[in-house]
Amino acid sequence: MAQSLPKDQSTEQRILHAAKTVFYRKGLGGARMEEIAREAGINKALLHYYFRNKEQLFERIFLEAFEQLLPQMTAILAQDLPLEQKVQQISDFYNEMLLETPLLPVFVLNYVQSDPEALTKRMISVNASKLMSHLTEQLAQETKAGRIRDVAPQQLIINLLALCVFPYAMKPIVTRLFHMSEDDFRGFSESRKQVVPEVIMAYLKP
Amino acid sequence: MAQSLPKDQSTEQRILHAAKTVFYRKGLGGARMEEIAREAGINKALLHYYFRNKEQLFERIFLEAFEQLLPQMTAILAQDLPLEQKVQQISDFYNEMLLETPLLPVFVLNYVQSDPEALTKRMISVNASKLMSHLTEQLAQETKAGRIRDVAPQQLIINLLALCVFPYAMKPIVTRLFHMSEDDFRGFSESRKQVVPEVIMAYLKP
DNA sequence: GTCTATAATTTGATAGAC
DNA sequence: GTCTATCAAATTATAGAC
Known about the structure:
The structure is a homodimer.
Chain A: H1 11-30, H2 33-40, H3 44-50, H4 54-77, H5 83-100, H6 104-114, H7 128-144, H8 153-169, H9 171-177, H10 182-204
Helix pairs in contact in A: 1-2, 1-4, 1-6, 4-5, 4-6, 5-8, 5-10, 8-10
Chain A binds a DNA duplex through residues 1-3, 11, 32-34, 42-46, 48-50, 52-54.
């Protein structure tokens, strides 16, 4: 615990940061403990001293990543706000977060796809029942008031998530396809903040 | 299971099919040659007899997968058709193809993300210049004619691809989130064929 | 073409000194 | 807490018989 460096990160913190870097890029199967250790500036033995094994270290990284993906959207949707504001908040949140962590979506999706029990064994219940009923009710009200047309809540959620997340999942392809520099992509990301709500609200327009 | 069937697939075909199954699910790093051999009903030695090493086998699978992702859309967009029909064709194509091969998107995206040179070293030029100029012109015409509003071609392409592909990239999460059976998901996929063009055309509406 | 057996590496994990 | 050295298991790849 007693770390000599006052302002520097603790060894555990550096390990977690290194693990994130390597796991995000290579996945569980492709990542090497050796590489994580090197990235953290230590050796394998010390890595195993902090985290008994690879699985345990991965678990830590994966859960934190997953938490940033779905729950954030459900949290915003659960608020008591006009629909349009929710959509804007979600768009802002994802586009800002994923500009900083563009590897996160594919990292999560890849592991979920590779391990059929990735979600079940962690009781990631994705407690959507309450959320869905809340959203369904809000949509019904807005529809009744004639402010939006009648659409399925599931389709809305999927569309919203797709428009927010997918551009980052394909970042390497997007940048190559459109000959974007890192700066270009930042501008693109910024523009998505407006485009996503535009698309969603146009879709909802009566 | 002796494979003495005359019209049955050749050994090479069965290997490729097995490799697809395993690579799609586990990725390059997570896949085991042993598992591919078992899936193909042969042993490792014979696997190496047909494909010298893992990389070479993977290359074959990856390139075929990538070809199904982007080029199909560009091919449809390059046709001489009204915009709305193109969008519908693209929606139909992806939703039908990905219902059968839902693991494909994450497989491709994961490898592209894991290897920074995945695209460059294969001169996957993604020759979009010609496509982009063609699409840009069509959008300009439709805009001038007052049939659609003025939107950036890049945003349109990304939106279209996101709406088509992302639901399958998140299939495990979607099914869990909405408590869908395989049959439910088939219905969901079918409904996407209409939803995607609805969203896109609403976005384009003046 | 297909197999068994085995070589050659890689890699996750541990032992033990400091 | 951190390191060096090393083990044990897993995994890719090859040799050689049939």
